[in-house]
Amino acid sequence: MSQFAINLIFVIGSFTLYTGIAIWARARSTREFYIAGGNVHPTVNGMATAADWLSAASFISVAGLISVGYVNSSFIMGWTGGYVLLATLLAPYLRRFGTYTVPDFVGKRYVSRSARVVAVVCLIVISLTYVIGQMTGAGVAFARFLEVSSDVGLIISACVVFAYAVLGGMKGVTYTQVAQYVVLILAFTTPAIYLSLMMTGHFLPQSGLFGTHAESGLPLLQKLDEVVRDLGFRDYTADVSNKWNMFLFTLTLMVGTAGLPHIIIRFFTVPDIRDARRSAGWALVFIALFYTTVPALAGMSRLNLLETVYPHGTTQPALAYDERPDWFENWEKTGLLRWDDKNGDGRIQFYNDANADFAAGTAAERGWAGNELTVNNDILVLALPEIANMPMWVIGLMAAGGVAAALSTASGLLLAISSAVSHDLLKNTLMPNLSDEREMLFARLSMVGAIVIATWLGLNPPGFAAQTVALAFGMAAATLFPTITLGIFVKRINSKGAIAGMLAGAVTTVGYIFMYLGWFFIPGTNNFPNTPEFWVLGISPLSVGVIGAVVNFTVAALVSLATETPSQAVQDMVRRVRYPTPAPVATAGATR
């Protein structure tokens, strides 16, 4: 059987599974469409939350980012830390509040339609910019494994999401995401275990990273450092030069994660506050299983790639282009791997020509005229089974896993948009007399509209993935997280303060990002080059979200103190959310 046929079986089989689950768990009421009826088991919800979070960016891109070295470990620390914030600061109290969506909480807590509408706008901007990467990631996976163009793959993905998300709502999406988590975690850990056994003899990749490289007898990390250093790259374990920016970036990812609306709404689906805490705990367990595997997979994949290009060692001639393996040719067709024979020797020189000392020294002595191999880091995970000559079924499983990761997060984001439009913008703002049946219809129509817009944005993205992700996390950190946190913990914050804070945080964050990445991401419209010497106080556009959050907190507090105090009913509501009145306990002799 051909590899294409095996890939097709895995991908179509997973699609059939997702659609079948959606039909079985289809939503029959608005409560089931928005919060799956509010009775999802915490373990199930934890697994669905993990799938909701482990997006195409996590599955496809994070290992590629970490393969560069310790400098990008902020992604894992920030994203995992965000769940700790969410579990301790937000999830239990939001569940006790009893709303359907994030804007619903904002509207009821601050007793303001204007605050609700501002929250809806922030949610749509966050979700739409974030969903672009998911749709694009699904297109990349299809482009390679089903041998279609990325645009066709993106459209297929949209059709699959339409089939199960529009029909099932949150109930269908929840149980579909459980299946998607199983698929993606098997697809991610199976090649990692296989590679760890090959390179170190360790079954667990987490221990293999700190084990011994079987071929050389050296510690794996030491061997990796030596190989990358021999080719002019910085050591894999090298320290970070700008710790201030790394600190701010990690905080932005933490706060942004805790403010992502498609993650927050998952905690409205469990029966009570205790189950909300348990859900967060289970989500951390399932996410940790993935993220503790990432550094090992990243380091081993990079070493495996370099040993493929230099099969006899970095001091010997590189692989001849005519002798390149099949996987090399397959990925060249996608455009994510390119070779340019700059010195005409027919061999694949792969090194860091940006390192001036190395280029003028070792590279010049060996007759190299520049780096000849361009490898998109996104292919390190997807191409790993082929690079390491793993069985064909592992490649098929990887195809299904990459698509599952993209679709799981895309469906959660699209559901968050749909719920905000139908429940918050229509039902609770523009059309308060809307019946449940009509609201359900508008919810499904909103989902269709969100899928159409997301597909169009995926086909015509406004910027690179890093740009759109920066905007999504920055906006979540600077707008929703402070507003929700203040709404739960500070009785004195009123609607004027909340609105002013969200607007101030959004303007600060978006303005700073646009100044360096281009206004509305239009090339050539940036005010300053996106290089460290031009950053204000050494803060990169990717790290500004936490600064926007500080601005939001400050403005919301100052405006609230300068204006009227919230009503006693609102203050009592906040106190009940934080400190519920315990039920009276009967004691012996109480009637005497």
UniProtKB/TrEMBL annotation:
InterPro entries: Na/Glc_symporter_sf, Na/solute_symporter, Na/solute_symporter_CS, Na/solute_symporter_VC_2705, Sodium:Solute_Symporter
Organism: Azoarcus taiwanensis
Membrane topology summary: Multi-pass membrane protein
GO molecular function: symporter activity
Annotated protein name in UniProt: Cation acetate symporter
PROSITE patterns: NA_SOLUT_SYMP_2, NA_SOLUT_SYMP_3
UniProt keyword annotations, A-Z: Cell membrane, Ion transport, Membrane, Sodium, Sodium transport, Symport, Transmembrane, Transmembrane helix, Transport
Domain of life: Bacteria
Taxonomy of the source species: Bacteria, Pseudomonadati, Pseudomonadota, Betaproteobacteria, Rhodocyclales
Transmembrane segments: 6-25, 46-70, 76-94, 115-132, 152-169, 181-204, 246-268, 280-298, 392-421, 441-459, 465-490, 502-522, 534-559
